[in-house]
Amino acid sequence: MRNRAPASNPRGRAAWSGEGRDFAANRGRPLSLCGLEEPRRLGGIWVLPLLFLLGLTPGCGGRGPAPDLVIINGKEPESLDPAVMSGEAEGRIVQALFEGLTRYNPTNGMAEPGLAESWTLSENGRRYRFRLRSEARWSNGEPIRTKDVLYSWFRMIDPVEGSQYSSPFYLIRNAEAYQTGTVKSRAEVGMKASDELNLEVELENPAPYFVELCAYAPMAVVPQQSIERHRSAWLTQGQPPASGAYTLVEWRLNDRVRLRKNPHYWDAAGVKSTLIDLLPVTHPTTALNLYLSGQADVIWDKDLIPSDLVETLRKRPDFHSFDYLATYFLRFNTTRKPFHDPRVRRALALAIDKRRIVEQITRGGERPAGHLVPPGLPGYVSPPGLSVDPDRARALLAEAGFPGGAGFPKFHYHFDSRKSQENIAVQIQAMWEKELGLRAELRPQEWQVYLNTQSQLDYDISRSSWIGDYNDPTTFLDLFAGGNLNNRTGWKHEKYDTLLKRAGAEPAGPARAELLRQAETLLVEQEMPVVPLYFYAGMQIHDPRRIEGIHPNLRAEHPLRAVARRGARR
Predict the structure, then answer these.
(1) Are 318 and 542 contacting, i.e. CB atoms less than 8 angstroms apart?
(2) Up-side HSE of residue 444: CA atoms within 13 Å toward CB?
(3) Which of 1, 500, 467 is nearest to 204 (CA)?
């Protein structure tokens, strides 16, 4: 769920503290890291002083109770509202605060019963009956009932204020028509309560992954009373009632998010850590310093592991690498010339040596990608896609009217301003100049500006990535259906949309897989509004002797409720 565009009305951006402190009080205070003032050598890696940081002193004196667990979480959250969140770091927190009918199993990343204790499916694969747990409670002790689920789901497809993440709900009968205004009555939408504990959901077509989607953060159950009372400020007014394993204690901008175990959670006995701090760190060296100095327990974002140290870190027992359901790719703005021409898009794609990028730049076990859908999904094999071919690239560029790059207009390559992204951008820039005679102007941008620029189609070529939300090819292929808010290329193709719709009407099996393969072939071999570059390899740093509850899985789902530290911090 990475690199999603932000909504125009970002509900819930916060700078509040449930413990009576505010961010302004800490602004400008240097970090001593509780005595870490001199460089130290740990496991063959030099740890440097971090006096340039502000306020990151997890577990130090004067900061309230020490956390049980400290996690390097990535960028500062833009929002913790399931309808607005825009990235993996936010999703990790949101899923701890708000639970859906199902939740992710910490061992295999698959869906298991959450707020719903059970469900049944009709023979035609279109009608689900969920039964909620009678013991399910909000963190304020109030019961969670079917009316809460219906409020949360209808909020996502509201015709006026619906979320950009409403597309998963389109599986439900008439949900899309309701959001677009074609259907006016909620009674015509395929979700209704039989009583306080039983919910019926009717789908447009069979969707074998629907139960998995019910664990997806945008389908979580959120507190109606708080949202209607406080509107966009509902996450900043006191402590909002939580339906998940944790409550939000404190959110200090550029400092930390603090979570506390929800005593009313239906599975409170299974929640391993009482108090968790999640730190907004975006610089790999900072992240590694905090970990090696014992100030943090887990680094979960691979972009926070210094690429130039991967080979050294790989030898350590606390370095973990695994296959990951995620793809790194480029988007073309197909509404701008000359990128409206598929020949130009294919030419630029064929000039990129993807193997060189993963072997010389990322160096984290990534694999070159010719197609968008990562390997490993049961019952599906992607088309091979395109491999590097500079001669063919030059021929296509000439065919499009730009022999040797002559006459090609100035263009920009747009990316978020992390060093890891800059390294990739520089390599691609050099390849295009060498093979095609084209020089892209590099445009790094701060994360939120980058997302806004992309969603507004104010770019030429933009780096992107996507993490699968469920174990099915459509979690990637649906992105580029016409009208999908996460498309962000301006590309729309009638045949592609038709193939997806036909696949959606098929049950799981070879016929459905073949239709999806045809759609992906059109996407990555013919039209190419996107250029797949590589498949991610998940990387984490945590010591298995000290940290329990983190298990490798294709989805990289590691629910906070299962993670704990053994013994005292180093």
Answers:
(1) yes
(2) 11
(3) 500
Task: Check residue 162 and give its pLDDT.
Answer: 76
3-state secondary structure of 88: helix
Convert the pLDDT of each residue in 494-532 to its tens digit.
Answer: 999 999 999 988 888 899 999 999 999 999 999 999 999
- Per residue in 351-390, pLDDT (tens digit) is 999 999 999 998 888 999 999 999 989 899 999 999 999 9
The kind and range of the H/E element at 250 are strand 246-252
The Cβ of residue 173 has, within 10 Å, a number of other Cβ atoms equal to 20
Please compute Rg for the chain using Cα positions: 24
Strand ranges inside 447-497, DSSP E: 461-467
Query: Which tens digit of pLDDT belongs to each residue from 327-354?
Result: 999 999 999 999 999 999 999 999 999 9
d(CA 216, CA 66): 31
**Residue 333: partners with Cβ closer than 8 Å, 6 or more residues away:** 339, 457, 459, 460, 461, 462, 489, 490
Alpha carbon distance 309, 38 (integer Å): 21
Are 550 and 322 in contact by the 8 Å Cβ rule? The answer is no
